Amino acid sequence: MEALLQKIEAYRQEINDYAGTGAEAAEQFRITYLGTKGLIKNLMGEMKHLPADRKKEFGQILNDFKQFTEARYSALKETGSNGQQSSAAAIDLSLPGDTIPVGSRHPISMMRNRIVSIFQRLGFSVAEGPEIEDDWHNFTALNLPEYHPARDMQDTFYISTDPAWLLRTHTSNIQIREMEKGILPLRIICPGRVYRNETISARSHCFFHQVEGLYIDENVSFADLKQTLYFFVKEMYGNDVSVRFRPSYFPFTEPSAEMDISCQLCKGKGCNVCKYTGWLEILGCGMVHPKVLEHCNIDPAKYTGFAFGMGVERPALLKYGINDIRLFSENDVRFLKQFTGVV
Ligand code: DAH
């Protein structure tokens, strides 16, 4: 009896470690252990040689061993010993496949693309520039020398190990880099991310996006600037929107202006978004300052040009009815997936 029990234990181990896979191996397993001439039948035959008082105990152990073997057999039939689907029959080809989630475009990218494509239709081509910039391209060449008070409005982040490098405060650095290439005439639209050292709130962030435009050629006038921007506003906001230019100051343009459109939400009547003025400021613009042209080795007596710069976040907030700028950069899929299928 003891020898038999030891044998069962050894077989239990063997069955547990059975390494075969696939339908053929399962069948082999059945024949070896569960078949009419198999191990279990064989062990049952041993029963008659045991003393009468041990028969019951042995019967129970054998029964338990049989159940264990059967369970191993059904597992083997379904899967290989490595746990993977093994037989062709186990794959149900009629089941629907796993759907691959389709992402959505970010609302900032959608708005940027809208803006850029309108100018592309006017012959502007896209130019980009570095976000980590030097003082010259971000400030000095744009007629914003060191200690110029206008620098205060564009405080940024400096690289502590080398303060000659900073995070650009506007996309105007691209103007300089493109003009320095010396290929004229130049007609570019420049989208990009910019940085400011500002307190983060629902209305402002330490980084945001801008689109810059620049057109340099002989005889470019303020009338060209206005006509270009009128076209943009009509394409972007529709025919019934009003536009106004307010005189302003930027060191890199002279004269300079800010452009407002009639508030899209209250249709000019006054609401808390337009601070009850009926107008929304959407961009800054002007005629490129002669000093800026000179910094890029362009002769201001021969060439003139206009430039403009606008934020992307504000029009996106308005268009998609979003009330907090921080949502754009939190990467919350519950927010982002609401833009699936939106253009
Ligand atoms: N760089 C300006 C800013 O970030 C925006 C701007 C104003 C860009 C006038 C221009 C411009 O090109 O002509 O506030």
Describe this structure in words.
- The chain has 2 domains: 2-89; 107-339, Bira Bifunctional Protein, Domain 2 (BirA Bifunctional Protein, domain 2, 2-Layer Sandwich).
- It is elongated, with a radius of gyration of 38 Å.
- The strands form 2 sheets. A 7-stranded mixed beta sheet has the order 1-4-5-9-8-7-6, with helices on both faces. The chain has a two-stranded antiparallel sheet with strand order 2-3.
- With 343 residues, the protein is of the alpha+beta class.
- The model has no long low-confidence stretch (mean pLDDT 92).
- Helices cover 36% and strands 19% of the residues.
- It starts with a helix and ends in a 7-residue tail after the last helix.
- The protein is built from 11 helices and 9 strands.
- Helix 1 packs parallel to helix 4 (52-78), helix 2 packs antiparallel against helix 4 (52-78) and helix 5 (107-121) packs across helix 10.
- It binds 3,4-dihydroxyphenylalanine.
- The site of 3,4-dihydroxyphenylalanine (DAH) has 11 residues, from strand 8 and strand 9.
List the helices and strands and how they pair.
Elements lengths: L1 H15 L5 H13 L4 H8 L5 H27 L28 H15 L3 E2 L5 E3 H4 L26 E3 L4 H9 L5 E10 L11 E11 L4 H16 L5 E8 L2 E10 L16 E10 L1 H6 L8 E8 L1 H8 L12 H4 L7
Helix pairs in contact: 1-4, 2-4, 5-10
The structure holds 3,4-dihydroxyphenylalanine (DAH).
